[in-house]
Amino acid sequence: MKRILFQDTSFRDGFQSFFGARVLTEDFIPAVEAASHAGITHFEAGGGARFQSLFLYCGESAFDMMDKFREAAGPDANLQTLARGINVVALSQQPKDMIDLHAKMFKKHGITHIRNFDALNDVRNLEYSGQCIKDAGLHHQAVVTLMELPPGCSGAHDEEFYINRLKQILDSGLPFDSICFKDASGTSNPNKIYKTIKAARKIVSDDTILWLHTHETAGQGVYQYMAGINGGVDGICVARAPVSGGTGQPDLLSMWNALKGTDYTLDIDVNKILEANAVFNEQMKEYYFPPEALKVSSEVLLSPMPGGALTANTMMMRDTGTLKLYPQVIEAMSECVAKGGFGTSVTPVSQFYFQQAFANVTQGPWKKITDGYGNMVLGYFGKTPVEPDEEVVKIAEEQLGKPRFDGNPLDILEPGIPKAKAILEKEGLDVTDENIFIVGALETPGGNKGLDFLKGNFSINVRKNVEEQASEPAAKSKGTGGFENFVVTVNGEDYNVSVKEGTADVQSYQEVKTVEQKPQPAAAPTGDVAEVTSSVPGNVYKVAVKVGDSVNENDTLLILEAMKMETPVASPAVGTIAAIDVEQGDVVEAGQRLLTISR
To answer: Which of 368, 435, 377 is nearest to 406 (CA)?
Structure first.
């Protein structure tokens, strides 16, 4: 009987898939200790969104979290993180010196394995990062990314395409210790997975370990794993209650049961796993479980949205008051995939698809090409599996003001370490390798969220259940999935509260900063005054001016942020800032007045 290897993804992909990666370290470390005592020896311990979300939403350092994870899991556990090729764990592509520093820092902070993927399946994007991982003394798991295409699409993401990409990895000389086939959306047809793994098994060496990773989002996960195991896969990724199933990985105990009576088994002590699950459930009892994370979402079969991105996106839509748009955005995403060149819907490409769909819904189809999607179709992230739609490429060239690029993205990125050092020195902050990486990895076009963190300029945004009673009447709005959303004031502070319809059961809360001003229609400058309004809903990320400042036409006045996408708001005229109606952290709606310019 063959023993199937497994990795417990609960504390990384599970957290991302259920909570948008927003989980405080102190709230789950006891569950790691319990899992270790239950005999689990291989954990997904960080990386991916669990790197940046700790800084952005939890007010914590991901490096400190990894240190505590290592202590809790014990010295001999395999701790694995997730990296995105040339993006590694950053918000954008990283230059060579930062890619190398990533591997060294993760090794220093207790990691032993790194799963390394590229959403475009462009093997060039894995070569340098993979070499750095190996040079740092880490286990390098190279990845082929999978999904199902929207109806009517063909030319990639079939058995032939995946085997071709595997052969490219083998022929490139890319150093690796194992191979993973990763379906972040959980949409791949199980028969296709069986044929792909069976064919892969024939062309790799007998001692090559093959892994399969998927999600239960579309209700396919256990079937996919059974197909992969029957095809010859050696290891699978599973999660445990309360973050298994739904948008997360198939459940460990469910897979153990599914393998009964076959030639395969999972080597676990079921009673000890149940004890560890009880600890985990207790640790997570205060956290808000979004309803969309707990169900089968069959619509992703047509618009392949990863489980980890689905909940992260709906969390951000809750933050910006746009959750009601989710059904329209997920429907619009299918066209973005079809016209975008068939990059796999996994970070960062899944976010590019969703951001572009969000823009198409809120601003009109293809009226605004988002930076990520535009750079992808123009080739600045690598080569897409098929050529993107020519009309979309033309629009992207015009709006982004740059031509198509067919070179290696690494060749046009300037070194990042000298720049990060200069920022730290200017700000009087410690110039450590950790701080260099934080500042380099979390830079955005509108600012530097890593620097904000190091300077203490951050807020904690972790959704937990609320027990306080409202001291003022609640403002009510219709929610989704059988929930109603309220704005509740408690001791002078406003909260978004989600309540199960027809009950008094509070499901979640989040403290918010609200803007009392009513949304107003956009107005063209007339007379001596120009009102500047928001073209999109979102959060105010940065206010770049103050009352009394002189501004020129097209100067950036402030930056709005929605879905990890920054939208600069430009001045429509020359003049002086007369009034500012919002401040950093406010949630605004499309058409709402942001500030006034006197001319």
So the answer is: 377
Residue 473, both tokens: 């009447």
Q: If we measure between CA atoms, which residue out of 508, 82, 490 comes closest to residue 315?
A: 508
pLDDT tens for 492-521 read 454 556 555 445 455 555 554 444 443 333
Angle, helices 417-427 vs 96-108, to 10°: value is: 70
Structural domains in the chain, sorted by start:
475-511 (no CATH), 529-598 (2.40.50.100)
The set of residues, in sequence order, having a beta carbon less than 8 Å from that of 277 and lying 6+ positions away, is 240, 241, 242
Q: Do strands 443-444 and 78-83 pair parallel, antiparallel, or not at all (unpaired)?
A: unpaired
Contact criterion met (CB below 8 Å) for 267 and 302: no
Q: How far apart are the first and last CA of the chain?
A: 80
Tell me if 89 sits within 8 A of 114, measured CB to CB: no
**Cis check: omega of the bond before 190, within 30 degrees of 0:** no
Q: Where are the beta strands (DSSP E) in 156-258?
A: 178-182, 209-213, 235-238
Q: Angle 449-439-81 (CA atoms, 0-180°, nearest 5)?
A: 90
394-441 pLDDT, tens digit each:
999 999 999 999 999 999 999 999 999 999 999 999 999 999 999 999
